[in-house]
Structures are given as structure tokens and as C-alpha cells.
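dumping this here so i dont lose it
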């Protein structure tokens, strides 16, 4: 069948010389360059399925990128991102010239000692891009070329596909592997505590209202599909639902986070809650506009703080001794880290950028809350933690307060998508917390104040000359760069700055925060100049922001 695959692949030929990299979040580039990559990822997913003797997922999406782009991510058996060794195989396979494809396949089969007679199953999903239909067909062709079975879920969000894979490989213990099953599980867990009444019986219709920016993508479709399951406990006004606007264009979570501004196409009154999804609905950020017209962003750091505060209170009430930690990256606002460590007294870990790193670190605790500042994140519960919570919830001898807390913890376990960050699931958890605590978005925002910050990009001839350590917070090369950053940071109050090569774009990213916006802007500019001078800047020298 391997040979058959190669013959078949002449239908999905590789343009000679094209080289692509399995990056921070899979392959991602202009859709026109991806047909052969998709076919080959179908082949690779089939091999991965044979190797793990489990169902593997393939998601066709380019998330927050423009509509012309597309991409592909592989999903491992428990719904997590594919393991790094196989990211390497993915790159090798995608870049093998047509005549070398057979050898590249054989290499993977040999290295992993794959039993080719083992059955293979692959779940495939796609986002709403115009290129996604034919590209996901190329994935399906790849699977059948190696004799694998596939199930095409059609239009789903990235986290929905992760969820399906996990359900399938846990024989339904995680839930039913259908989109309906997903809505049922999440919405029941969302509604249950609200229907218990005692928590927020005074929750008015106003407080139940939320404006959602669907980024003109798959998330919008899926929110609409889910609505009837919410039993009017959440009133959603959906904007940017894809009926007219362009995907991710001046809307969506990435636009809102980077521009620190509301998306176009949304109408929200002063003080009302709004949120934005990204193009494949695995990220979410919240915001509101105050009575002076000022925009307030509640990003991944604020979300992590809200969720971990809620969980910590419940653990105290339940008298459960479970270790909770928050995992962030260097981009987390310094105020959030400060608040979590000093006021809330939770363990905070910092990892490299990229969800797989955060997910991994979060697995080391009983309860691990992880979020990137841009709004991608979730909560992980260890098996032992889930068991303790369940025992208490079902213990007839436990007193009312402990039991109530255990029930709320149980609903949290069920509402959250533990496989990966999920805009829909995160939204339901956040809405439940606000309702249960009777908290407004302004009160949530006031938990701590963000330090003013600025992110810039610098173009250099080869960004690999920058090497970092300490979870990307310090540069070890080129020589003199870290010393330069250190002395610039010293000039400002409450300042912090770091640089790192991006894993998704050909740029060096510069981050700076300080006591005032002007200081943050100045520091970011000065650090950009240091990068430009010491790391081989190309084009014009970075200009000051003021
Ligand atoms: C500063 C920033 O937001 N970086 C993003 C971005 O990675 P870079 O390696 O910084 O390009 O894309 C990643 C994938 O979507 C996401 O995980 C990450 O948080
Ligand atoms: Mg995304």
C-alpha cells in the first residue's frame, strides 16, 4: 500500500524546491502552497495512528491568519498537540521532493518500527476558509492512500476536533465523539450550577447578556449551533458571523489583543461585556467600553486570574488539599504574575511561548491553569484531583458548604475542554464564574491593573542569531545584547523587557512594560534599536513611537 500511496500522490504533487516548517502551531502559509502538505499529513497521521494504535486528528485551519492562508495541525491520542519527534517527521515529509517521498515514508516507518498491518483511524476537521474544502479532501486522500479509515467531521472548531479525538480514544469516558455530544456535555455543566439556584438567583437578564465577535469564522457558526442547548441561561448577541465580513479582518481575538481596541462590526453599550474568538475558536479575549468611551481589554492573564481565584476559593471551601498552579509565558503582564504570586499565593510557572509548552507544565500539578496573554488556554485536572472532587461531591456525610464547592468543581471539570484552549468552553466557564460570584466585568477588571506595555517587531537577516534562556526571558546571543537590554531596563521604573525570535513569522519580537505607556514605548523602541544593531537588522532603523 505504500507504493500505492506514492502513485496516488502524483495527484497532489509538491512544487519542487518549496520548503516549509512545522512551526509553533503546525504548517501555515498561503493556501496555494499546501495541497501536497495536506496529502502528506494524511499519510503521516495514518502512520501515527498505526504507531499509537489510536485515533489521530488532522485539523485544516490557519487560525487568525488572513483568509488567503491555510494550515494544518496534528492531534495526538489524548487530544493534545502531536509530540515533537513527529513534528520533525512532518517537516521531513512535507519537504521531501516527489521522487524522495517513498524513502522519507520508509524512514519514518523504520525509525518508529511501525506495523503496517495495524489498523488506522483519522478524524479530519476544517475551518470556514474557501480553501479548506479541497485541502481537507487532500488529507482524506492521504489517509486512504495508506489504507487508513477516516471520519470527516467537516466544519468544526479546532478544540472540537481535539475533543472528538479524546472522546474516541477514551471509549466515551471523556464524552460522546459528536458535535452534539460536545454541546450537551459543556452546556449541562454550564447550566447545572445556575439551576441549583442558590448561587445567582438574583442574576438579571442584563447580566446574562454577552456580545460575541465570531471573527467571521467557524466559532460564529458553532455558537449559533449551540445556542438552544443554553436554555436561555446565556443570551448571546452574535456579531461578525461570517454572513458579510471577511475572516479575521479587523475583528477577532488577535486583532483585539494586538490593537488594544474593539473589533469593527460589534455594537456594545458602555459597561457591557464583549468577547472575541479567533479564526478557529481556540482563543478568546474579553473587553468592555467604559462610560468615557475608554476600551478595557481582559486578556489571557486576566482570564487565568479569574479562573484560578475561583478554583482556589472552591478548594478552600471544599477543604480539599490540591495543588493549584498558573502557567504563563514571558508575555504575561508583570502585574498579573505579581498578583498571582504575592496576593493569591498560587504557584506560577513560566514556559517558552507555544501552547504545547504551557500544557506540559500544567500537567505537573493537581490543577494547572494555563493561558497565553493572547487568550489561548485552559485548565487541566489530574486524575487524582478529579477522583477526590467526585468522591466529595458524592459523599452523603459531607456538610453543605463542602458539597456545594465539590459540585461546582465537578461542573468546572466538565465545562472546560482539557484537551486544548477552547474559546467556547472558556467562555462558558467565565460566564458561569461571573454569574455564580455575581461579579461584573468591571469588578473582574479591577482585580489588578495591567502595567502599560508595548510589543514591536524587528526585521533581521537571520533571526536564529538570537538564542534565549530562562523561558525566553534572557538572550544568550548575540554577544552584548542582554547587557544592553539590562542597562536600558534600569532607566525605567517597574520595567521589564525581553526579545525572542518568533516561531511563526520571520521577525524578532520585542516586549517591554513599564510604569507608564510612554516609558514602555520608549523602552521597546530602545531595545528594538539594540536588536537592530547587534543582531543584524535589515531595512530602516526602528523609529521612535513618539
Ligand atoms: C507573542 C505571541 O502572541 N506569540 C504567539 C505566536 O507565536 P510566535 O512564536 O511569537 O510567533 O503564535 C503562536 C501560535 O498561534 C502563539 O502560541 C504565540 O502565543
Ligand atoms: Mg487559533
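and the seq i came up w/
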Amino acid at each position: 500500500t505504500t507504493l500505492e500511496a506514492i502513485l496516488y500522490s502524483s495527484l497532489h504533487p509538491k512544487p519542487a524546491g518549496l520548503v516549509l516548517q512545522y512551526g509553533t502551531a503546525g504548517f501555515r502559509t498561503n493556501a496555494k502552497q499546501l495541497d501536497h502538505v495536506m496529502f502528506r499529513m494524511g499519510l503521516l497521521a495514518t502512520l501515527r495512528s498505526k504507531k499509537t494504535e489510536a485515533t489521530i486528528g488532522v485539523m485544516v485551519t490557519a487560525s487568525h491568519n488572513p483568509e488567503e492562508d491555510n494550515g494544518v495541525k496534528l492531534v495526538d491520542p489524548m487530544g493534545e498537540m502531536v509530540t515533537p519527534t513527529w513534528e520533525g517527521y512532518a517537516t521531513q515529509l512535507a519537504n521531501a521532493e516527489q521522487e524522495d517521498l517513498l524513502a522519507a515514508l520508509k524512514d519514518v516507518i523504520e525509525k518508529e518500527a511501525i506495523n503496517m498491518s495495524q489498523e488506522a483511524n483519522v478524524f479530519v476537521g476544517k475551518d470556514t476558509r474557501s480553501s479548506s474544502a479541497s485541502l481537507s479532501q487532500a488529507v482524506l486522500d492521504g489517509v486512504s492512500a495508506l489504507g487508513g479509515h477516516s471520519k470527516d467531521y467537516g466544519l468544526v472548531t479546532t478544540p472540537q476536533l481535539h475533543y472528538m479525538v479524546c472522546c474516541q480514544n477514551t471509549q466515551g469516558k471523556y464524552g460522546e465523539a459528536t458535535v452534539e455530544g460536545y454541546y450537551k456535555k459543556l452546556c449541562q455543566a454550564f447550566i447545572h450550577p445556575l439551576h441549583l439556584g442558590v448561587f445567582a438567583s438574583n442574576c438579571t437578564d442584563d447580566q446574562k447578556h454577552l456580545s460575541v465577535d465570531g471573527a467571521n469564522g467557524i466559532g460564529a457558526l458553532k455558537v449559533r449551533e449551540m445556542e438552544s442547548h443554553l436554555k436561555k441561561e446565556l443570551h448571546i448577541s452574535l456579531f461578525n458571523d461570517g454572513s458579510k465580513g471577511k475572516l479575521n479582518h479587523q475583528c477577532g481575538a488577535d486583532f483585539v489583543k494586538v490593537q488594544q481596541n474593539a473589533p469593527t462590526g460589534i455594537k456594545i453599550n458602555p459597561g457591557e461585556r464583549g468577547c472575541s474568538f479567533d479564526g478557529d475558536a481556540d482563543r478568546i479575549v474579553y473587553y468592555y467600553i467604559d462610560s468615557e468611551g475608554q476600551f478595557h481589554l481582559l486578556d489571557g492573564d486576566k482570564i487565568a486570574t479569574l479562573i484560578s481565584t475561583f478554583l482556589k476559593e472552591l478548594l478552600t471551601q471544599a477543604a480539599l488539599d490540591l495543588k493549584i498552579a498558573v502557567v504563563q509565558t514571558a508575555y504575561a503582564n508583570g502585574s498579573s504574575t505579581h498578583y498571582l504570586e504575592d496576593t493569591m499565593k498560587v504557584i506560577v510557572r513560566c514556559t517558552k511561548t507555544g501552547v504545547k509548552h504551557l500544557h506540559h507544565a500544567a500537567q505537573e500539578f493537581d490543577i494547572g491553569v494555563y493561558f497565553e496573554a493572547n487568550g489561548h488556554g485552559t485548565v487541566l485536572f489530574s486524575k487524582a484531583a478529579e477522583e477526590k472532587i467526585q468522591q466529595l461531591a458524592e459523599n452523603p456525610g459531607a456538610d453543605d458548604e463542602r458539597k456545594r464547592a465539590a459540585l461546582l468543581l465537578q461542573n468546572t471539570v466538565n465545562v472546560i475542554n482539557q484537551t486544548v484552549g477552547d474559546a467556547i468552553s472558556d467562555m462558558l466557564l467565565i460566564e458561569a464564574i461571573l454569574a455564580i460570584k455575581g461579579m461584573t466585568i468591571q469588578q473582574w477588571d479591577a482585580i489588578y491593573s495591567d502595567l502599560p506595555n508595548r510589543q514591536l517587531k524587528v526585521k533581521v537577516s537571520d533571526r536564529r542569531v538570537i538564542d534565549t534562556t530562562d523561558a525566553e526571558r534572557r538572550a544568550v546571543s548575540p554577544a552584548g545584547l542582554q547587557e544592553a537590554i539590562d542597562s536600558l531596563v534600569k532607566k525605567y521604573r517597574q520595567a521589564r523587557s525581553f526579545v525572542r525570535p518568533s516561531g511563526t513569522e520571520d521577525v524578532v519580537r520585542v516586549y517591554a512594560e513599564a510604569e507608564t505607556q510612554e516609558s514602555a514605548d520608549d523602552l521597546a523602541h530602545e531595545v528594538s534599536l539594540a536588536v537592530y544593531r547587534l543582531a543584524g537588522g535589515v531595512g530602516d532603523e526602528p523609529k521612535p513611537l513618539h
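The pocket of magnesium ion (ligand 2) is lined by residues 63-64, 278, 280, 282-283 (CB under 6 Å).
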